[in-house]
Design goal:
The complex is a heterodimer of chains A (about 120) and B (about 110). Chain A has no helices and 10 strands. In chain A, the strands form 2 sheets. A 6-stranded mixed beta sheet of chain A has the order 2-10-9-4-5-6, with no helix packed on it. A 4-stranded antiparallel beta sheet of chain A has the order 1-3-8-7, with no helix packed on it. With about 120 residues, chain A is mainly β. The N and C termini of chain A lie far apart (about 40 Å). In chain B, strand 7 and strand 8 (about 100) form a beta hairpin. Chain B is mainly beta and about 110 residues long. Chain B is globular, with a radius of gyration of 13 Å. Classes of the chains: A mainly beta (about 120), B mainly beta (about 110). The interface of A and B includes residues 95, 109 and 110 of A.
Amino acid sequence: QVQLVQSGAEVKKPGASVKVSCKASGYSFTSYGISWVRQAPGQGLEWMGWISAYNGNTNYAQKFQGRVTMTTDTSTSTTFMELRSLRSDDTAVYYCARNKKYDWFDPWGQGTLVTVSS
Amino acid sequence: QSVVTQPPSASGTPGQRVTISCSGSSSNIGSNTVNWYQQLPGTAPKLLIYSNTQRPSGVPDRFSGSKSGTSASLAISGLQSEDEAHYYCATWDDSLNGWVFGGGTKLTVL
């Protein structure tokens, strides 16, 4: 079955960087892209950006431009999301989700909690 | 503040029909399709409706979606206690060149 499995929880200090991974299985990895969506505690969903697994093209939300980098490793069907210059308000659960750029997100990974605290 | 607006809460009794609205503008809902996601407590979101009206396999036909102009709606008929969750609409925004989510609606089954 189609599945996305994310890396484990992280605790970071303000100003640090975090890199979250998302390993895909059960489908042709390069036929889709991966979006990253985050959810702060008790808050709604926020789209961060998208990367094509076919050619590595990216489309970042303006809010995260310059602070986020998304990459893929086709040899392991894994996508990575790195967020730099972390602040306390970056504390959130980060989800990856499979999608073609203008299409729906399905399925979603289980989520990775990133806590930013001094 | 999201550019796509949902009511923060909705409620109904078992067996009732409830609807959740999603209001946007010409740059998002008005020119793109809408998808709906269900997020049960403590879990990742799950695709519920795609392309305005389509249900993925495994989603009960009690769930239906519609769109008109710059608004969309999710309807749940025959409400069940297991439907208690947060529901989010999402659509592409041409002006922002990215995906936007509604703020989410918490559905309570009384």
